[in-house]
Structure formats: C-alpha cells, structure tokens
Amino acid sequence: MNKVELLGRWTREKSEDLYGIKSWGSRYFSISDKGEVLINPYPGVESAVSLMDIVSGVKERGLDMPVLLRFENVLDAQIAYLNDSFNDAIKSMDYKGRYQGVYPIKVNQQQQVVHEVTKFGQRYHHGLEVGSKPELIAALSEMKDKEACLVCNGYKDEEFIDLGLYAIKLGFKCFFVIEIPGELELILERAKELNVTPNIGVRIKLSSKAGGHWTESGGDRSIFGLNMSQVIEIVDVLKAKNMLSTLKMLHYHLGSQIPNIRDIRTAVGEAARVYAELVKEGAQMGYLDLGGGLAVDYDGSNTNYTNSSNYSVPEYCIDVVEGVMSVMDDSGIEHPVIITESGRALVAYYSVLLFNVLDVATFEEHEVPETLNEDMAAPIHSLHEVNKNINLRNLQECYNDALYYRDSIRDMFNHGNISLRDKAISEKIFWNTIYEIVQKKRELKVVPAALVELETVIADIYYGNFSVFQSIPDCWAIDQLFPVMPIHRLLEVPSRESVIADITCDCDGKINKFIDAQGIKKTLPLHPLEENHDYYLGVFLVGAYQETLGDLHNLFGDTNVVSIRLNEDGTHDIVNEIRGDSVDDVLGYVEYDSNEMKANYRKTAEDAVKKGLITAKERREILSAYEAGLRGYTYYER
Ligand SMILES: *Cc1c(COP(=O)(O)O)cnc(C)c1O
Asked: Are 489 and 527 a contacting pair, CB within 8 Å?
C-alpha cells in the first residue's frame, strides 16, 4: 500500500487502534469525529470535551505550553469507582465489614490533589496515609472527616508521634503503624505523657513476593515491616502492659503496580491468616490494611506485563473481599474493616501533560552518485558496491559490510588519509544503504535479529517543548511506559515514524519506547508538521508519582498546571491555574539571588559602557532583556 492510498483511507478507527486509546483510556478518553482526543468522565452522557478546546482556552489565558491538565471529575470518578467496586463486592458476598480506603500522599503530594481527594473522598470516608512528618502535617491541614482513617507509616520520632496523638485528641481516627520494633516503646511513653490512648498497627513482611518494578518493598527481604517473631514480641509487650486492646490494625504493602492478580490473592490470604492469629492472641484488631499495589493498565494490554494489569478494579475488589472473608469464616472471626492504600489507581488518570512540537529532524533521503572518482579511497568504493547490490537475500550481509567500511573510512579519515569532502560522500552512501535496508526489510517474513530495530536509527526526531526529567521522570528512571499520542489530526495518516526528544538536549531526555498491544514499540507514528500550525502531543496517565519526583534537570522547572472541571452539559471551567516556575524561581532553588544577579550584570554592563563597547541606551535594553528573562517561563515561549 503506498502513502497516497493510505491517505484516502485513514480513519478514526485506525487511530484508535494505532494509539490503543480504547484499551488504556476507555473510561475517560476517546477520539471525536473531527479527529481530536475527547475527555468525558460521565459514561453514557454526551458531554465530552475536546482537549484542543482546552488548549485554546489555556492559550487565551496567556499560559504557554507545556501545561499539565488536571481533571477534577476524573479524580472524583476514580474515587467513586474504587469505593463503589468494593461496596458492590461486599454486598454481593454479604461481607459483614466495610471498606475504607486511604490515599497515600506520597503518590502525588500537591496540595490541590490532597485537597480534592479529601473533598471527593468524604462521602466514602476515604482517608489519607502518610509516611513522614511533613506528610502528616500536610494531611492534618486538609483532613476534615473524623470518620475517615489517617494511617501513619514510616519511621516516627517524638515530634511525629506527638502530632499523631494530638490528632487523636481532636477526634481523628489516627493509627500508628509500627515499622521497626523500637518504635513501640516511644509511642507508649508519649501516649502516657499526653494521656491519649493510641491506635496501634503492625506492618508485617510477607513471605509472598510479587512481580513488578517495586516489589522490593514486599517479601521476606523487604527493609520495611516486622517479621513474625517481632510481631509476637509486640503482642507480648502490650500484653504485659495490659494494653493489647490498642493493637487494632495489621498492615502490609506488597509494592506498587502489581500486574498479576495471583500475587495479590496470595498476599491477602497470608495476611488474613496473620490477622486471625492476632485475634486469637487476644488483640482487639478490627482493621486489615492491604497497602497499595492496585495496578494501572498503562499499555492497555490487560496482561501481567510490568506496565499493565491482568485484572480490573472490580475483579481486584472481589478477590480481596473473598480472600479476607474465607480466612475469617474458617476461623470464626468477625470480618474486619478492609483498608487499601491504593494511590496510583486513584490518581494516574487524573493528569495529562500537553506540549507542542518545536521542530523535527527528519531523516533525509541521501542521494548516492552513480559513479565515484577513481582516486577515492578503497573502502569508499567498497561501500558504494555494497549500496548497489542490496537485495532481499543479502540484507544482513550488506548491513554488516556497511558498518565495517564505515569504520574503516573513519579510521582513514582520522589518520589524515581521506578528505572531508570524501568523508561527506561516504556518509551519504552509508545512510542511503541503511535506508534501503530498512525499506527492503519490510518485505521479509522473518527479520534477522540485528535488523529488527533498525527503523529507530532512521526515525524522525520530534522535539517536544517539555522536559522528561521534570514531567515524566519514571520514563527515564525506570523505563515506565505512558500512552503518548497526538491530540488532533487523528483523521490524517500519521506517516512519519518518530521518536520524541525533549528540550533538555540531554541524550536521556527522550521518549523512545511506546506502548503496543504486542509489547513495546521503538517508534511512534506521527503526522508531518504543517507550516504555521502547532502540533500538540499528550502524555496520558501521568497523575501518579510523576509530579514530585521531577527534578530540575537543566533548570527546567514546574510546568504550568491548569485544573479543569467538566460539566455534564459538555462545557468546562478552568477552576484553577498555577503558573509554572519562572527562571528566577528555579535559580532560587539552587541558591541564586536574583537581586544580586541583576546587580552583578548591571556592573558588567556599566563597565562595558565605560569601555565604549555599548552605549548607555544599549545598556538599558540589555538589562531589561536580562530582567525579562528572569521573570519568564523556563520552557520555550513563542
Ligand atoms: C507507595 C505506597 C503505597 C501506594 O502504592 P500504589 O501502588 O500507588 O497504590 C501504599 N502504601 C505504602 C506503604 C506505600 O509505600
């Protein structure tokens, strides 16, 4: 099929397949008849909003790309989805306890996010989980609901413990989860001192392990949590002090993004057994906290691959409730309140990163001269021969030979035996050879291993106005995949195979792995840029873990953030905008003082005036450009 044929036939359905949007985004994202990405948090209601309309609204407000969109309603809908799914499972199985989730703040600690989680969570008494003193202090400022749980994990010093005990005094359901044996003594001491009865939990290490990126936090070798003999010691200490009634919670955390439901079931079964034994020991209990791990299907493959999940939220809930219930019923024990600390699953869908493409480096088709000058070096002639003899049966051989002669030519050049002009010609021949091999390779049924990924070396490079390190750090740090796609032009054929580079000019600042139903793609089909028209790409499912891990690589700071409320009538409101960092802000983080900087530069300019290098008027212009630069956005501004 040639390109023209394709052009006529490209459809919305083809874009849906190509970018997998129905698999990873079906709850909220779709493609419109106009070929634009739509968002709609109300299933069954015709109220979808085009991301392109949001882009124009954002631009009218004078906010530049890149921009992070946060959709309030999506967060609201995910909280409802998780809670309703648990409540449905509980009802259908006639489980006697209830579900009460807590949101782990570390997953996205931004004030606006925590604020919205507590606001939308209130109707389900969905609480918060904190792992440090600052997180506890933040949680206490946002938490209003006294029915919701506040779970304190992490190592706790006296100040942390006192803050938690005061929270209990104020009527909050605050739990201290013991992670190391030594903590108990301090908690009991402070509780006595402040005259508060603490709620104690124990975090255990399970012997079950799970697959996935983050599973070091679970399992026997995990650095967090107590082994069984330490748990028994805690029981004995509390017994001796006649305080076993304060032991109310069992907690474990298997790790984040557990793609396989089997691992989840095994862990639930093991923890439920420990819980039942603690009840038999005489502990009060009442709460079983299963930690995080509820996975997000980033690649839409619905498998147990790292970036996927082979179960849905309702399946997870049924398996958890069933697992807990069967152990409790076997032991004749009252059904506990089930807590999960699902973070990723609540917030991943909530945010979308949008950026414009600044430029493209296309792979040029290199013309090869019909004949070469006789006096050119031998390896150039040999390379030329290789180029002329490519056929379907010798692709691998041609590839090997081309690399060999390229290296010989490089050596000869370095020793002064080839001129720059001849080297330039040899490079053209080399790249044309690679190009021809890639074209021919497509006709092969079985592709030699060395040639499988050859497309990537001739892929176009799309330069995006964003920083991988700032906005999607996991993409760089742990090869996390996120769905990436254009948010418009989806009725046109995406004829260019591409990789995406960011503007940090760092060789790691790129996206070159893309989701694919059959695994991982090394290039992403995109549309050719059009003169005078911006081209916008979206990175989806970036609400979890990406915002706070971001670093100040090359001093690109926070992006602009816009919060959006979608209305059921298909309109939308921009409810909040947070300007990204200015140059001044990011330099401040690395201890520059903008007043001092201006003073220093003023002096440099003043000296230049004295030396007659610039006029006094130029000095004023130069200084005002410097000051405007300090105030400006760190990203590329039009
Ligand atoms: C990180 C973490 C979570 C969140 O896990 P998700 O996979 O995002 O749900 C929950 N509990 C603890 C203790 C954690 O460290």
From this structure: yes
